[in-house]
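From the methods appendix. Each design record in this collection lists the tokenized structure first, followed by the designed amino acid sequence. Records were kept in a plain field format so they could be parsed without special tools. The example shown here is representative of the layout used throughout.

RECORD:
FOLD TOKENS (144 positions):
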């Protein structure tokens, strides 16, 4: 086992926390913007995504404070596209989830062979983000 680069891990966990908190805002916004005959299940989906983003931010924050880090009070930057068709918000969601996946993969690279717990956390999150990517791709299929 190699030594954990604590500073790199803490910085990345803070970035993840900021990104997941932005997801809370993003998915809450989307849940409010959905219209049309399929509104209710899609709103339910986005509300669940917002709750899960908050949980992920909290998990990352617990780990980073456990490593003696200080959690950020920021959220990652977000752009308002003013495009609110279901297709547009699903595409934006997919883009967001792909970025989340890349952050967790980056974390895995930083913690590999240095912390089994952090490796398992990163792998679990990668699995969840990959599932979200698949789900969103399936939801987008009807629009192609």
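DESIGN:
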């Amino acid at each position: 086992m190699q030594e954990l680069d604590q500073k790199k891990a803490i910085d990345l966990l803070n970035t993840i926390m900021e990104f997941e908190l932005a997801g809370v805002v993003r998915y809450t916004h989307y849940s409010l913007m959905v219209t049309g005959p399929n509104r209710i299940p899609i709103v339910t989906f986005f509300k669940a995504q917002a709750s899960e983003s908050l949980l992920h931010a909290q998990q990352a924050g617990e780990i980073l404070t456990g490593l003696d880090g200080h959690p950020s009070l920021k959220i990652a930057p977000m752009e308002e596209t003013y495009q609110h068709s279901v297709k547009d918000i699903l595409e934006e969601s997919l883009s967001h989830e792909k970025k989340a996946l890349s952050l967790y993969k980056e974390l895995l690279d930083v913690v590999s062979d240095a912390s089994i717990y952090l490796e398992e956390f990163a792998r679990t999150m990668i699995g969840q983000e990959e599932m979200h990517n698949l789900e969103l791709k399936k939801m987008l299929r009807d629009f192609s």
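APPENDIX NOTE: The helical segments are 6-33, 39-66, 86-111, 116-140.
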